[in-house]
Design brief:
- This protein is α/β, with parallel strands linked by helices.
- The protein folds into 3 domains: 139 residues, no CATH class; 205 residues, Rossmann fold, CATH 3.40.50; 38 residues.
- The protein has 15 helices and 16 strands.
- The strands form 5 sheets. The protein has a 7-stranded mixed beta sheet. Strands 14-15-16 form a 3-stranded antiparallel beta sheet, with no helix packed on it.
- Helix 4 packs parallel to helix 5.
- It is globular.
- The relative contact order is 0.11.
Length: 397
């Protein structure tokens, strides 16, 4: 938490007064808690900055911030540029924006060419501010022309239709008509598994089912040549496929990428955030459940961290929706979503008509649980299958 706060502090270019204002609260408990946090944080921050100064080191935020200062204060610095290419502009943070703006001001007539996709803006937690590109013309004070990239070589129908319809339900996302040049076919399948008491190994049987289906479709020799990526909301979801017949080893020291071996198959696992930018033949998404740490993740970040985050749009689970869009657009050939039969993600109901039909009448309150009829002391009533997960819908018959 301290590390995240420090990163947001430096990427957002907040002064100490800014931080105090953002952490101000009318709640007595929050006020005391925030004050205690700041007391700890300020000592660590000062020691951290002193260490960097004495050892002549830079962290990533320092490189951006120091570069902006040099451009702004040194007359001969960053002169002579005719063009600036800004890639992944949806990940623009406050300090990166300030650096680009400083170079533009130093070079009158310099043209800015920016490439980005607001559908894939998923790094708000590191300081990215989507508002900077939603108001791009106002942000940079430039006369602009927009060109939409509406063709993709990565995936085909029905993934194009499903993913586009899903992400554009948020009216604040830009609207596009995406098409596939190669006319390829990329279906999305939903696999519902049986609920178990323990999450460890819960998705293992569904994963076996998918791998056997791949073998049946392509034959064993072709199937084992397929590139297969397993992804999930969190890194610790790797535990959901733990089983004696899956050999799992960490591919990096940080425990963010794993190699998985099953029979003749070699698979990789990473988080949804880590999967951005990759393309695989087949993608399998774990833990597509309506849960605290499912998808969308309903676990809220700490209010202290929220205080330094860029303002999010008001559409429900806006950033989680963009993250799910990234997850279902990584595969060339097929995407498989694994969910618990008892509490599948509400996102699955949005993209799958067959799941809606299988579940029959859905709860009007949470829109994901199935209405179950039960006889009580005072007559028959309906309750929601998500009762154990917090939905208290009840209706007498």
């Amino acid at each position: 938490m301290l590390q995240t706060f420090l990163s947001l502090h430096k990427n957002g270019l907040y002064s100490n007064e800014d931080i105090k204002k953002r952490l101000a609260s009318e709640d007595i408990y929050a006020t005391k808690r925030n004050a205690l946090f700041l007391k700890i944080y300020q000592r660590i921050y000062q020691a951290y900055e002193l260490f960097i100064y004495k050892t002549r080191r830079y962290d990533f935020a320092d490189m951006i911030n120091s570069a902006e200062e040099c451009v702004r204060e040194i007359p001969e610095c960053a002169c002579g540029y005719k063009y600036i290419l800004l890639d992944e502009v949806q990940d623009l943070s406050r300090n990166r924006f300030m650096l680009v703006r400083a170079i533009l001001r130093k070079n009158p007539g310099c043209k800015l060419f920016a490439v980005g996709d607001d559908w894939q803006s998923i790094y708000r937690f590191t300081g990215s501010d989507l508002g900077l590109i939603h108001g791009f013309e106002k942000t940079f004070g430039l006369t602009t022309r927009r060109s939409l990239i509406e063709s993709t070589h990565r995936f085909g129908q029905p993934t194009i239709r499903i993913s586009c319809d899903f992400i554009q339900r948020n009216p604040l996302q830009s609207h596009k008509l995406v098409r596939n040049i190669q006319k390829s076919n990329t279906p999305i399948y939903v696999i519902l598994n049986k609920p178990t008491k323990n999450t460890e190994g819960q998705d293992a049987e569904s994963l076996r089912t998918i791998l056997r289906a791949i073998i049946d479709k392509h034959g064993s020799e072709v199937a084992k040549t397929k590139s297969i990526q397993i992804i999930s909301r969190y890194n610790h979801d790797i535990n959901r496929i733990k089983s004696d017949d899956f050999q799992i080893t960490a591919k990096d020291d940080g425990g963010e990428v794993f190699e998985i071996y099953w029979q003749d198959f070699r698979l990789e696992f990473c988080s949804m955030h880590k999967s951005k930018g990759i393309t695989r033949d087949i993608v399998i998404v774990l833990n597509m459940n309506s849960d605290l740490m499912g998808m969308p993740a309903t676990r809220e970040s700490d209010p202290i961290i929220d205080a330094l985050l860029a303002e999010d749009d008001s559409y429900p689970f806006a950033e989680e929706r963009r993250l799910f869009y990234v997850a279902i657009t990584r595969a060339r050939e097929a995407t498989y979503l694994i969910a618990n039969r008892k509490n599948p993600s509400p996102f699955i109901f949005e993209i799958s008509d067959s799941i809606k039909e299988a579940y029959g009448k859905l709860c009007p309150k949470c829109h994901t649980g199935e209405l179950i009829k039960k006889r009580g002391r005072f007559g028959d009533f309906f309750y929601c299958s998500n009762y154990a997960y917090g939905c208290d819908y009840l209706k007498k018959i």
